[in-house]
Input
Amino acid sequence: MSALGDLLRLYSYVLLLRVILSWFPPSSSQGALATVQLWLFKMTEPVLGPIRRKLPPMGGLDLSPMLLLIVLQVVAQALA
Output
């Protein structure tokens, strides 16, 4: 696989980790967790934000990570 494909896979893992950690609200007693969540937010929000604004409201569900993961998989397959 190409270097770009590897980067897409790595970004997919970062995105999945953001989704999983979003289930745990950050608190001041969990400094390391809050730092990781902030870092993941900064890495993914520039891509997720525009997608989120284009998607219609889904009753409180944020489907932008799922859509982005699908797009990343399609692009990675096209590069393979």
